[in-house]
Inverse folding.
């Protein structure tokens, strides 16, 4: 029973490098969400994706951050030219369907990727 | 900007005590209220998804109630055990405007149960 998988679990990058975070949703889930937890803060929504589409990226910084969820393969959160302020835990969650009607839409979370920028 | 507030921020109780915490959320454009349990070094795990005003859900010693008209939900833990120690998060799902389809989380209540 594979849940949401994220890798790597820990990632260390020097300032200016790129960070790529991967998320494989629960099998059969076509909706993926990325959240960020900054030190001493709660979970903040970043982006919501459906296969090949970005539905809502209003929580994602406009520069240096991008996300994709291709038809095949995991969802990728990419951070270019990382800075120290990007150090955080990044969580991915998936759900079965878009919230509508009586469908199940609880989100299943992955274990997170802890990014440290030195 | 949607505001979801949880109180208290942290709570220390003795084993066997019963406890409860609050989640406040906007009362308009309500779709669902989620409760998650988040243990240290693990990922948040869904406890309840609540949609109807007056809803009450129960899982073992943990239960939750929902009041969508006044915008609050309570989570109760009866006879707390050390293994209940975790952060309890609530998250609000709205049908309104630009927040449609995404969860807005509260800051969480950190519960520590002392043996």
């Amino acid at each position: 029973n594979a849940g949401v998988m994220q890798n790597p679990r820990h990632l260390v990058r020097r300032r200016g490098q790129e960070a790529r975070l991967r998320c494989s949703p629960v099998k059969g889930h076509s909706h993926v969400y990325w959240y960020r937890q900054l030190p001493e803060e709660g979970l903040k929504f970043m982006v919501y994706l459906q296969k090949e589409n970005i539905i809502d990226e209003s929580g994602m910084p406009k520069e240096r951050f991008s996300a994709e969820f291709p038809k095949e393969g995991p969802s990728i959160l990419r951070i270019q030219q990382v800075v120290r302020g990007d150090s955080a835990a990044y969580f991915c969650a998936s759900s079965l369907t878009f919230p509508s009607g009586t469908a199940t839409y609880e989100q299943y979370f992955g274990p997170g990727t802890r990014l440290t920028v030195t | 900007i949607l505001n979801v507030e949880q109180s208290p921020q942290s709570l220390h109780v003795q084993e066997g005590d019963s406890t409860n915490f609050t989640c406040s959320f906007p009362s308009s454009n309500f779709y669902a209220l989620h409760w998650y349990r988040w243990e240290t070094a693990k990922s948040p795990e869904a406890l309840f998804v609540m949609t109807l005003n007056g809803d009450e859900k129960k899982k073992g010693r943990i239960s939750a109630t929902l009041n969508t008209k006044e915008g609050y939900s309570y989570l109760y833990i009866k006879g707390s055990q050390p293994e209940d120690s975790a952060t309890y998060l609530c998250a609000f799902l709205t049908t309104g405007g630009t927040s449609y389809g995404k969860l807005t989380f509260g800051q969480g209540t950190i519960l520590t149960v002392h043996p």
